[in-house]
Structure formats: C-alpha cells, structure tokens
Amino acid sequence: MSTQVKETVIQFGEGGFLRGFVDYFFHKLREKGLYDGKIVVVQPIEKGMCQMLADQNCEYNLFLRGIENGKVVNEHTHVTSISRALNPYTQYEEYIALAENPDLRVLVSNTTEAGIEYLGTEKLTDTPPKSYPAKLTQFLYKRFQAGLKGMILLPCELIDNNADNLKACVLKYADLWELGDDFKNWIETENDFCNTLVDRIVTGYPRDEVEELTKQIGYKDNLIDTAEIFHLWVIGGHHEDELPFQTAGYNIVWTDDVKPYKKRKVRILNGGHTSMVLGAYLYGLETVGQCLKDETVSTYLKKCLFDEIVPTLGNTETDIKFAQDVLERFSNPFIKHMLLSIALNSVSKFQVRVLPTILEYKEKFGKYPAALTFSMASLIAFYRTDKANDGQEIMDFMKTASVEEIMKREDYWHADLTEMIPLVQRYYDLIQEKGMAEAYKVVLAE
Predict the structure, then answer these.
(1) Residues of the chain scoring pLDDT < 70
(2) Is 271 helix (H, G, I), strand (E, B) or coil?
(3) Which of 115, 127, 211, 431 gives 92 a disulfide partner, CB atoms 3.0 to 4.6 angstroms apart?
(4) DSSP state of 349
C-alpha cells in the first residue's frame, strides 16, 4: 500500500454503533490485506464527536466480549480504519470536496431512526443543509456534476426499507432543487441503494470499567467502545467483489431480499425480549442475565422461543440456530441489560414483536400459544404497577381498564383480539391471585 491514504468510504455518523460494527469490519479487511482504503467520517448533526476523533488521530480501542459456542470470548482491537473526521458545520468546503474524489465508492450511515427524513425547507446553497438526506443530495449532485461514477449506499438506520426511504428523500430534494432529469436518472442507474439489517448489541463507552480497560491498553482513550461478539449484517445487494466481508470470515449476508431476515430478528430476538421481561420483572428480577440464570424464567423463555416462535416461522435449521444464538447473547456476562429499559413503550413493542406470532400460531395450529398468550397477561399486570413507561394516555388507560377493555383496543393491537379474552383473563387472574411464581408453573405445565 502507498503511503498516501486512499479514502474509499464516506460515513455519516460517528457514534458507538458504527465504530463497533462497520468501522471494525473495514479495519479487519485492511488487516487481512483484502481492502485498500480508509473511511472519512462526516458528522451528520451540529453537535457531535468529530473533534474527539480528530484529537485521537481517529483511532480508538474496541472490546468485543461475549459467549461464542459456549466459550467466553474477549477480543481487543485497536481500530485504525478512519482517516479523518469532518464537521460540515465548520469544515463545509472540505466536506463537499469529498464528492470529487474518484476513489470514494461506498457510503455508510447511521443517523438514528429519525435521521432519514425529508424536511423540504433546505436550499441547495445551504452550507450545510439541516437533514442528512439533503446533505447527501448535495454531495451526490456535486459528484454527478464532476462526471464521476455513483456509490454503493449502505444505510444502517433501524427502519424498514432504510435505503428505499433514503433514495425517495434524495429524489424529492432533486425535485425541490430542480436538479434535472439527468441527475435523477444518474441516481437511479449509477447508484445502488441497498436496504440493510444490522444486528449487534453495542454497549458503547464502558463507564463502569474504564479504569480497568485503560490499564489494559496503557493510555487514555476517550472513545473506548464495547460490544458483544455476535454480529449480523444483511445487505440487499451483491458487492462481495468490492467488499469481501464474507471472504474475511464475517457474518455478512448479500441477498436480494432483506425482509425474511428482518422478520426472524424481530420475532426471535426482539419478541423473545418483550415476551420475557415484563413477567420476569414482576417475578422479582432486574436484568436479562438474571433471567437466563433463573431456572423458571429461562425455561419459560425457551418455551416461547422453541415451542411457539420458531415453529411459527417454519422451524428451519436457520431459525433454530438463530434462537440458540439469542440465548447465548442474552446470557452474555459482559452486558448488564436492565429489564425496565427493555420495557419502555411495551404496548407498541408487543403489537409489532409478539402479537403477530400469537395470531399466526393460532392460524397454523388451531390454538393460542400458552407462553406468548401468558406474556400478554403479564403485560397487563405490569402496566398496573408504577414502573410502566409509555405514552401518558396509554399508561392512564392500562392502569385501570379491565382485561376485556384493554384487549378490545384495536388502535393498540391493530387486530381484533376478542377471541383471546377468556384465556388472557384466566392467566391475568392467576398472576393476581397466586403470584408470578405459581403462574409460571401453570403455564410451563401446559
């Protein structure tokens, strides 16, 4: 490799997730001699961490820790894949000049779920415009004007069809700014907007252990990052020739359709969390780790996963393996995942993550799944406490309404749940009369 740094990736976002996920993969590609190129980080909003990165020569330490195949893994990497970090609010000229670099080929972003939005109030002449899609449109237009080829765009924001949404915003700005049909045609034909699904728990800056880790590395690093060892990156496209992640041995899937992977993750990982945490909290536990160590709650979780969720998805080896991985991830001793933080906004989470499995199970097997239906009763019992954290109207209603009234709120559940009422009522009464420990015994016997 030449001493001149070749910049091939532009990254909108400098937070812990991208540094613990994407930047790590590019570091490893370079380390293995499979890729020649570095990342330029662009700060998507006015306040950010670009200066902190610049102060450390854009280098930082990442600790990946967890259980893999039953063994504890603790991997430390000094990450050097970022060449520089730019704040477009103070370094606009340097930022927009990136568009004219012919080596740039890949664009990655994580600007939070709210980042991909069309405001429609910005101008092409803004330095910079406010929203991420407007900044991106400005960048791509400059690139188009320079006669350069397009990009591979890999947005990592956690929304459905993230790339489709991003592209739609860019095309709206192209119309708003009257950038012409040739530019819009170039966007459509020369750029590959790839929908993605990212999966890794990144725990970020380890406040509780920073002294110990500083001793280990031997100097102060203000950007230490921590994450679990597990990772999955599903990309709706085919660019292994340019980005040989699989060749490097990483769990990166190139596919034509991200949807089945998304469904599996939401139903098993997120559905597993949501169906377990409310009952477990009422039972007296505080963290996911404690749940996995408790025989009753872990047996209940396994019943949810392997007897009810996985069979509804199709019971394939891939589904079973993913569920087994989820159990390992939940029992990661390095992650202290509080039940109450997962319990935030549980009504909407339940509607997306758990209820579809309950209804599909009933359709497929002719009866309601005991453990998941029980989790609905646990949800109602949990909302009776002062620990619920949700919209005020939802909390006020759930605290006093009857089981029947709650179940009939189609605006909450997006379904008619009348048929489920007697079973949920039975489980709810059991929790109230006998307590959570006895209620678990009944459900696990069914």
Answers:
(1) 1-3
(2) helix
(3) 127
(4) H
